[in-house]
Amino acid sequence: MPPRLDVRIEKWPIAGGFTISRGTKTEAVTVVAELVDGIHTGRGECTPYPRYGETPEGVAETILGLTHEVQMGLDRHQLVTTLPAGAARNALDCAFWDLEAKRSGRRAADLAGLPPLEPQVTCTTISLGTPEEMAEAARKKADWPLLKVKLGKPGDAERIAAVREAAPKARIVVDANEGWAVDELPALMRACEDARIELVEQPLPSDDDAALERLERSVVICADESAHDRLSLPKLKGRYDALNIKLDKTGGLTEALLLAEEAEATGLKIMVGCMVATSLAMAPAMLVAQRAQWVDLDGPLILSQDREPGLVFDGATISPPDPDLWG
Protein backbone atom coordinates (compact mmCIF):
# COMPACT_ATOMS: atom_id res chain seq x y z
CA MET A 1 0.00 0.00 0.00
CA PRO A 2 1.47 3.41 -0.94
CA PRO A 3 2.19 5.64 2.06
CA ARG A 4 0.48 8.91 2.89
CA LEU A 5 2.66 11.99 2.50
CA ASP A 6 2.62 14.60 5.30
CA VAL A 7 4.72 17.76 5.53
CA ARG A 8 5.19 20.29 8.33
CA ILE A 9 7.37 23.30 9.08
CA GLU A 10 9.16 23.39 12.44
CA LYS A 11 11.06 26.16 14.26
CA TRP A 12 13.93 25.41 16.63
CA PRO A 13 15.50 28.26 18.66
CA ILE A 14 19.27 28.63 18.46
CA ALA A 15 21.22 29.00 21.70
CA GLY A 16 22.64 32.52 21.69
CA GLY A 17 22.43 33.10 17.92
CA PHE A 18 24.61 31.83 15.11
CA THR A 19 26.62 34.24 12.94
CA ILE A 20 28.31 33.68 9.59
CA SER A 21 29.37 36.17 6.92
CA ARG A 22 25.80 36.42 5.58
CA GLY A 23 24.20 37.36 8.91
CA THR A 24 22.91 36.07 12.24
CA LYS A 25 20.22 33.45 12.84
CA THR A 26 18.23 33.05 16.04
CA GLU A 27 16.24 29.98 14.99
CA ALA A 28 16.48 27.06 12.60
CA VAL A 29 13.41 26.67 10.39
CA THR A 30 13.18 23.13 9.08
CA VAL A 31 10.76 21.15 6.94
CA VAL A 32 9.89 17.56 7.89
CA ALA A 33 8.47 15.09 5.37
CA GLU A 34 6.71 11.97 6.64
CA LEU A 35 5.65 8.86 4.74
CA VAL A 36 3.00 6.99 6.76
CA ASP A 37 1.72 3.56 5.73
CA GLY A 38 -0.46 2.89 8.79
CA ILE A 39 2.21 0.78 10.48
CA HIS A 40 5.51 2.56 9.85
CA THR A 41 6.49 6.20 9.48
CA GLY A 42 9.52 7.29 7.51
CA ARG A 43 10.85 10.77 8.27
CA GLY A 44 13.26 13.19 6.66
CA GLU A 45 14.25 16.74 7.62
CA CYS A 46 15.70 19.55 5.53
CA THR A 47 16.69 23.18 6.09
CA PRO A 48 15.68 25.48 3.20
CA TYR A 49 18.55 27.82 2.38
CA PRO A 50 17.90 31.39 1.14
CA ARG A 51 21.31 31.34 -0.61
CA TYR A 52 19.68 29.01 -3.15
CA GLY A 53 16.33 30.80 -3.28
CA GLU A 54 14.62 28.33 -0.96
CA THR A 55 11.95 29.15 1.61
CA PRO A 56 10.25 26.80 4.10
CA GLU A 57 6.87 27.46 2.53
CA GLY A 58 8.16 26.88 -0.98
CA VAL A 59 9.95 23.67 -0.03
CA ALA A 60 6.89 22.34 1.79
CA GLU A 61 4.73 23.14 -1.25
CA THR A 62 7.19 21.37 -3.57
CA ILE A 63 7.12 18.22 -1.45
CA LEU A 64 3.32 18.22 -1.19
CA GLY A 65 3.19 18.65 -4.94
CA LEU A 66 4.36 15.04 -5.22
CA THR A 67 1.43 13.62 -3.25
CA HIS A 68 -0.06 11.99 -6.34
CA GLU A 69 3.28 10.57 -7.46
CA VAL A 70 3.83 9.03 -4.01
CA GLN A 71 0.37 7.45 -4.18
CA MET A 72 1.29 6.05 -7.60
CA GLY A 73 4.40 4.34 -6.19
CA LEU A 74 7.19 6.94 -6.46
CA ASP A 75 10.37 5.75 -4.72
CA ARG A 76 13.74 7.31 -3.91
CA HIS A 77 15.35 5.99 -7.09
CA GLN A 78 12.75 7.74 -9.24
CA LEU A 79 12.85 10.82 -7.01
CA VAL A 80 16.39 11.66 -8.18
CA THR A 81 15.01 12.44 -11.65
CA THR A 82 11.70 13.90 -10.41
CA LEU A 83 13.02 16.79 -8.32
CA PRO A 84 16.25 18.81 -8.70
CA ALA A 85 18.92 18.68 -6.04
CA GLY A 86 17.97 20.75 -3.01
CA ALA A 87 16.24 20.79 0.35
CA ALA A 88 12.84 19.48 -0.83
CA ARG A 89 14.30 16.39 -2.42
CA ASN A 90 16.49 15.80 0.63
CA ALA A 91 13.60 15.62 3.09
CA LEU A 92 11.60 13.24 0.91
CA ASP A 93 14.58 11.09 -0.06
CA CYS A 94 15.56 10.60 3.59
CA ALA A 95 11.94 9.77 4.45
CA PHE A 96 11.99 7.05 1.77
CA TRP A 97 15.21 5.61 3.26
CA ASP A 98 13.73 5.64 6.76
CA LEU A 99 10.48 3.99 5.66
CA GLU A 100 12.37 1.32 3.72
CA ALA A 101 14.52 0.55 6.75
CA LYS A 102 11.53 0.29 9.09
CA ARG A 103 9.52 -1.88 6.69
CA SER A 104 12.42 -4.25 6.07
CA GLY A 105 13.69 -4.42 9.65
CA ARG A 106 17.17 -3.55 8.37
CA ARG A 107 19.32 -0.51 9.09
CA ALA A 108 19.77 2.12 6.40
CA ALA A 109 23.51 1.45 6.35
CA ASP A 110 22.80 -2.17 5.48
CA LEU A 111 20.42 -1.09 2.72
CA ALA A 112 23.22 1.11 1.38
CA GLY A 113 25.68 -1.79 1.38
CA LEU A 114 27.70 -0.34 4.26
CA PRO A 115 28.98 -2.06 7.40
CA PRO A 116 27.45 -1.05 10.75
CA LEU A 117 28.03 2.62 11.43
CA GLU A 118 30.91 3.71 13.63
CA PRO A 119 30.90 6.74 15.96
CA GLN A 120 32.37 9.89 14.43
CA VAL A 121 34.24 12.90 15.81
CA THR A 122 32.60 16.15 14.71
CA CYS A 123 33.77 19.72 14.49
CA THR A 124 32.34 22.21 16.92
CA THR A 125 31.61 25.60 15.39
CA ILE A 126 32.89 28.99 16.51
CA SER A 127 30.52 31.69 15.31
CA LEU A 128 31.80 34.81 13.53
CA GLY A 129 32.61 37.71 15.86
CA THR A 130 35.47 39.93 16.91
CA PRO A 131 38.89 38.28 17.36
CA GLU A 132 38.47 38.67 21.11
CA GLU A 133 35.00 37.09 21.13
CA MET A 134 36.15 34.20 18.97
CA ALA A 135 39.27 33.63 21.07
CA GLU A 136 37.10 33.42 24.18
CA ALA A 137 34.81 30.91 22.47
CA ALA A 138 37.84 28.89 21.40
CA ARG A 139 39.22 28.83 24.95
CA LYS A 140 35.93 27.36 26.15
CA LYS A 141 36.22 24.65 23.49
CA ALA A 142 39.98 24.18 23.58
CA ASP A 143 39.60 20.54 24.66
CA TRP A 144 37.59 19.69 21.55
CA PRO A 145 39.81 17.94 19.01
CA LEU A 146 38.43 19.77 15.95
CA LEU A 147 37.21 23.37 15.70
CA LYS A 148 35.42 24.96 12.75
CA VAL A 149 35.86 28.74 12.64
CA LYS A 150 33.42 30.95 10.76
CA LEU A 151 35.09 33.79 8.85
CA GLY A 152 34.31 36.05 5.89
CA LYS A 153 34.64 39.64 7.15
CA PRO A 154 37.52 42.20 7.32
CA GLY A 155 39.99 41.23 10.04
CA ASP A 156 39.98 37.50 9.35
CA ALA A 157 43.76 37.18 9.69
CA GLU A 158 43.47 38.51 13.25
CA ARG A 159 40.60 36.13 13.96
CA ILE A 160 42.61 33.16 12.73
CA ALA A 161 45.62 34.06 14.88
CA ALA A 162 43.47 34.72 17.95
CA VAL A 163 41.69 31.37 17.74
CA ARG A 164 44.94 29.47 17.25
CA GLU A 165 46.50 31.17 20.29
CA ALA A 166 43.43 30.33 22.37
CA ALA A 167 43.35 26.68 21.25
CA PRO A 168 46.98 25.72 20.56
CA LYS A 169 46.40 21.95 20.44
CA ALA A 170 43.17 21.71 18.45
CA ARG A 171 42.84 20.82 14.81
CA ILE A 172 41.23 23.82 13.10
CA VAL A 173 39.33 24.28 9.86
CA VAL A 174 37.94 27.63 8.73
CA ASP A 175 34.91 28.54 6.64
CA ALA A 176 34.80 31.86 4.78
CA ASN A 177 31.31 31.28 3.33
CA GLU A 178 32.36 32.93 0.02
CA GLY A 179 33.46 36.01 1.97
CA TRP A 180 37.03 36.54 0.69
CA ALA A 181 38.14 38.50 -2.36
CA VAL A 182 40.67 37.30 -4.92
CA ASP A 183 43.17 40.06 -4.13
CA GLU A 184 43.25 39.25 -0.40
CA LEU A 185 43.43 35.50 -0.84
CA PRO A 186 47.26 35.07 -0.77
CA ALA A 187 47.63 36.97 2.51
CA LEU A 188 44.76 35.12 4.16
CA MET A 189 46.11 31.77 3.03
CA ARG A 190 49.48 32.67 4.55
CA ALA A 191 47.68 33.49 7.80
CA CYS A 192 46.10 30.05 7.66
CA GLU A 193 49.45 28.38 7.03
CA ASP A 194 51.05 30.27 9.94
CA ALA A 195 48.22 29.15 12.25
CA ARG A 196 48.40 25.49 11.13
CA ILE A 197 44.89 25.55 9.68
CA GLU A 198 44.28 22.25 7.86
CA LEU A 199 41.33 23.20 5.64
CA VAL A 200 39.81 26.38 4.20
CA GLU A 201 36.20 26.03 3.14
CA GLN A 202 34.82 28.06 0.20
CA PRO A 203 37.11 31.09 0.37
CA LEU A 204 35.78 32.76 -2.80
CA PRO A 205 32.29 33.25 -4.24
CA SER A 206 31.26 30.23 -6.27
CA ASP A 207 31.14 32.27 -9.49
CA ASP A 208 34.62 33.68 -8.89
CA ASP A 209 36.58 30.59 -7.89
CA ALA A 210 38.55 30.15 -11.13
CA ALA A 211 41.34 32.10 -9.39
CA LEU A 212 41.95 29.02 -7.24
CA GLU A 213 43.48 27.27 -10.26
CA ARG A 214 46.48 29.63 -10.00
CA LEU A 215 46.84 29.46 -6.23
CA GLU A 216 49.72 27.53 -4.71
CA ARG A 217 48.65 26.16 -1.37
CA SER A 218 49.76 23.98 1.51
CA VAL A 219 46.30 24.11 3.10
CA VAL A 220 43.42 22.02 1.74
CA ILE A 221 40.80 24.12 -0.05
CA CYS A 222 37.30 22.68 0.20
CA ALA A 223 34.31 23.47 -2.00
CA ASP A 224 30.96 24.12 -0.36
CA GLU A 225 28.73 26.49 -2.33
CA SER A 226 30.63 25.44 -5.47
CA ALA A 227 29.68 21.76 -5.01
CA HIS A 228 26.14 20.43 -4.96
CA ASP A 229 25.81 17.07 -6.70
CA ARG A 230 27.72 14.94 -9.19
CA LEU A 231 27.12 17.51 -11.93
CA SER A 232 29.37 19.89 -9.97
CA LEU A 233 32.44 17.68 -10.07
CA PRO A 234 33.94 18.74 -13.43
CA LYS A 235 34.08 22.38 -12.29
CA LEU A 236 36.07 21.50 -9.17
CA LYS A 237 39.06 20.03 -11.00
CA GLY A 238 42.21 22.07 -10.42
CA ARG A 239 40.45 24.44 -8.04
CA TYR A 240 39.62 22.38 -4.97
CA ASP A 241 41.23 19.59 -2.99
CA ALA A 242 38.06 18.51 -1.16
CA LEU A 243 34.32 19.05 -1.17
CA ASN A 244 31.76 19.47 1.58
CA ILE A 245 28.84 17.10 1.04
CA LYS A 246 25.61 18.40 2.57
CA LEU A 247 22.40 16.49 2.03
CA ASP A 248 20.41 19.71 1.62
CA LYS A 249 22.60 20.50 -1.41
CA THR A 250 22.79 17.01 -2.91
CA GLY A 251 19.05 16.51 -2.56
CA GLY A 252 19.29 13.59 -0.17
CA LEU A 253 21.28 10.59 0.91
CA THR A 254 20.88 8.73 -2.38
CA GLU A 255 22.80 11.35 -4.36
CA ALA A 256 25.20 12.07 -1.48
CA LEU A 257 26.49 8.50 -1.42
CA LEU A 258 26.98 8.51 -5.19
CA LEU A 259 28.70 11.90 -5.03
CA ALA A 260 31.11 10.72 -2.34
CA GLU A 261 32.08 7.70 -4.40
CA GLU A 262 32.69 9.67 -7.59
CA ALA A 263 34.51 12.47 -5.76
CA GLU A 264 36.93 10.03 -4.19
CA ALA A 265 37.55 8.48 -7.62
CA THR A 266 38.68 11.90 -8.88
CA GLY A 267 41.08 12.34 -5.96
CA LEU A 268 38.98 14.75 -3.88
CA LYS A 269 38.85 14.43 -0.12
CA ILE A 270 35.50 14.38 1.66
CA MET A 271 34.01 16.63 4.28
CA VAL A 272 30.43 16.02 5.39
CA GLY A 273 28.55 19.04 6.65
CA CYS A 274 25.13 20.29 7.64
CA MET A 275 22.86 23.25 8.01
CA VAL A 276 21.69 24.18 11.50
CA ALA A 277 19.02 21.56 12.16
CA THR A 278 18.01 18.76 14.50
CA SER A 279 19.36 15.24 14.86
CA LEU A 280 16.81 14.02 12.32
CA ALA A 281 18.74 15.90 9.62
CA MET A 282 22.15 14.71 10.89
CA ALA A 283 21.28 11.01 11.14
CA PRO A 284 21.33 10.20 7.38
CA ALA A 285 24.57 12.18 6.99
CA MET A 286 26.23 9.74 9.39
CA LEU A 287 26.32 7.26 6.49
CA VAL A 288 28.38 9.68 4.41
CA ALA A 289 30.51 10.54 7.44
CA GLN A 290 31.91 7.01 7.49
CA ARG A 291 34.13 7.86 4.50
CA ALA A 292 34.86 11.53 5.33
CA GLN A 293 38.15 13.03 6.49
CA TRP A 294 36.30 15.91 8.21
CA VAL A 295 32.89 15.61 9.87
CA ASP A 296 30.86 18.72 10.67
CA LEU A 297 27.54 17.54 12.08
CA ASP A 298 27.25 19.66 15.21
CA GLY A 299 24.00 21.35 14.11
CA PRO A 300 21.96 20.00 17.04
CA LEU A 301 24.50 21.36 19.53
CA ILE A 302 23.80 24.89 18.25
CA LEU A 303 20.11 24.59 19.13
CA SER A 304 18.59 25.44 22.50
CA GLN A 305 16.96 22.00 22.43
CA ASP A 306 17.16 19.01 20.08
CA ARG A 307 14.30 16.66 19.24
CA GLU A 308 13.76 13.48 21.28
CA PRO A 309 15.12 10.97 20.69
CA GLY A 310 18.16 12.61 19.16
CA LEU A 311 21.71 11.69 18.37
CA VAL A 312 23.89 11.03 21.40
CA PHE A 313 26.91 13.33 21.67
CA ASP A 314 29.73 12.44 24.07
CA GLY A 315 31.79 15.58 23.77
CA ALA A 316 32.86 15.65 20.13
CA THR A 317 31.90 12.03 19.44
CA ILE A 318 28.55 11.27 17.78
CA SER A 319 27.08 7.79 18.16
CA PRO A 320 25.17 6.24 15.24
CA PRO A 321 21.43 7.02 15.26
CA ASP A 322 18.95 4.85 17.10
CA PRO A 323 16.28 3.35 14.81
CA ASP A 324 13.63 5.34 16.70
CA LEU A 325 15.25 8.51 15.36
CA TRP A 326 15.96 7.45 11.78
CA GLY A 327 17.10 4.57 9.61
Structure description:
Helix 6 runs parallel beside helix 7, helix 7 (156-166) packs parallel to helix 8 (185-194) and helix 11 (253-265) runs parallel beside helix 12. Helices cover 34% and strands 22% of the residues. By secondary structure, the protein is an alpha/beta fold. It folds into two domains: 4-111, Enolase-like, N-terminal domain (Enolase-like, domain 1); 120-318, Enolase-like C-terminal domain (TIM Barrel, Alpha-Beta Barrel), CATH 3.20.20.120. The chain is globular, with a radius of gyration of 19 Å. A hairpin with a 4-residue loop joins strand 2 and strand 3.
Task: Characterize this entry briefly.
The protein has 327 residues and is of the alpha/beta class. It has helices at residues 56-64, 67-71, 76-82, 87-104, 108-111, 131-140, 156-166, 185-194, 233-236, 247-250, 253-265, 279-289, 299-302; strands at 4-20, 23-36, 41-46, 120-121, 124-126, 146-150, 171-175, 199-201, 220-223, 242-245, 269-272, 294-295, 313-314, 317-318. Keywords: Isomerase, Magnesium, Metal-binding.
How much beta, percentage-wise?
A: 15-25%
Distance between the termini: 20 Å
Helical content (DSSP H or I, runs of 4+):
25-40%
- The CATH architecture assignment of the largest domain turns out to be Alpha-Beta Barrel
* Average pLDDT reading: 95
Query: Which regions have little confidence, pLDDT < 50, spanning 5+ residues?
Result: none
Strands across the major sheet, in which order?
Answer: 5-6-7-8-9-10-11-12
* Structural shape: globular
What is the CATH class of the largest domain?
Alpha Beta
Binding site for Mg(2+): 175, 201, 224
Active site: 150, 246
Protein name: Dipeptide epimerase
GO molecular function: metal ion binding; racemase and epimerase activity, acting on amino acids and derivatives
